[in-house]
Amino acid sequence: MKHLFTNRFGGVSHPPCDSFNLALHVGDNSLHVEQNRDILKKQIGVSSILFMNQLHGDIVECVDESTTTPSCDAMITNVKDLALCVMVADCIPVLLFDKVRNVIGVAHAGRTGSFLHIGQKTVQKMLDNYGSCVEDISIFMGPSIRSCCYEVSKEIVGGFESYLTCRDEKCFLDLQTLNRDDFLKIGILPKNIMIEPTCNCCDKRFFSYRRDGVTGRFCGIIALEQDR
Ligand SMILES: [Zn+2]
Description:
Elements: E1 2-5, H1 30-44, E2 48-50, E3 60-62, E4 74-77, E5 82-88, E6 92-98, E7 103-109, H2 111-115, H3 118-130, E8 137-141, E9 151-152, E10 164-167, E11 170-173, H4 175-186, E12 193-195, H5 209-212, E13 218-223
Parallel strand pairs: 2-5, 3-4, 8-12
Antiparallel strand pairs: 1-13, 4-7, 5-13, 6-7, 6-8, 9-11, 10-11
Helix pairs in contact: 3-4
The protein binds zinc ion.
Zinc ion binds next to loops.
């Protein structure tokens, strides 16, 4: 398995999407986005990459070579030479890998998706569709907005108040711990959950919608090794 999280450098897009923007829906020149996606393809070393039309929902799709840009927020596959990509600019890019059954997945865990337990639903689909065992699955959460920056209004977190930290009348949500707890609850082992400590809103090497408004998207990408 190979995986990586991109940052904003190494692409061809112009401001405000400079330079490694991977999203077609943010007003960037589509030719530049396609060039960036070709660069990404070379970096991950596969023939094709599947992107999602992300909707902030909880739909998980099982995909293969014949799938074209599914409308969903998570997808899983056991097909080799097909990379799965999740685009973000604050939401958590979640990568999943079952090392025994050789199954990979990606999930787009923003606030809405996290509240809908998108991570657990992705794991469940790996168990149901590929016979994965939960103790074989590893989770990688990439750079995303953390509680230093993620101010939310108290009214919108119904049921998830335990993940709020409030100070000086302001409340901040900890999406990473929420997702970690969800994965633990479904049986993922603590040693198999990796969380990138970077807050993309603090760290200007990454795009951040919260910080910049109109901007690009970076990504998490994962692929199975090809047979030799
Ligand atoms: Zn921050």
